Backbone:
């Protein structure tokens, strides 16, 4: 049974912190490795293995104990998610909304007329004072 008291136990908070730190560490490792291994003196000949490096690092850290083990799990989660995302075709990613900005409808400020079929407002200036935006 789930208990609210158990949520804030020391072990759970340490585990959550480790997972978050691991996820961040995976992104840092990926960025540093990509930066280090791209250029004229390319150490890694196949750039396709670069996304797997945080996964390997996470596996290594996951064999440890305590907080470091949780950091390894966080790196694994982040690394596997990135690798999985890279294997999904671009069209499917768009369809699923992976890695896309979320826009929930069109918002048009200042004009009281709703957008109707066939209604075009090509000359409407969305940045003008009449658009209802605040001037700072």
Residues:
């Amino acid at each position: 049974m789930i208990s609210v008291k158990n949520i804030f136990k020391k072990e759970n908070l340490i585990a959550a912190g480790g997972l978050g730190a691991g996820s961040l560490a995976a992104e840092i490792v990926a960025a540093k490795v990509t930066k280090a291994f791209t250029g004229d003196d390319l150490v890694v000949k196949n750039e396709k293995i670069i996304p797997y490096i945080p996964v390997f690092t996470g596996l290594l850290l996951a064999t440890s104990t305590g907080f470091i083990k949780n950091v390894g799990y966080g790196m694994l989660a982040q690394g596997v998610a990135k690798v999985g995302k890279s294997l999904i075709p671009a069209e499917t990613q768009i369809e699923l909304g992976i890695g896309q900005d979320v826009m929930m409808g069109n918002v048009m400020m200042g004009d009281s007329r709703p957008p109707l079929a066939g209604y075009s407002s090509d000359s409407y200036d969305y940045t003008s004072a009449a658009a209802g935006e605040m001037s700072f």
Notes: Residues 7-96 form one domain. The CA atoms of residues 24 and 119 lie 47 Å apart. The chain has a mean pLDDT of 76.
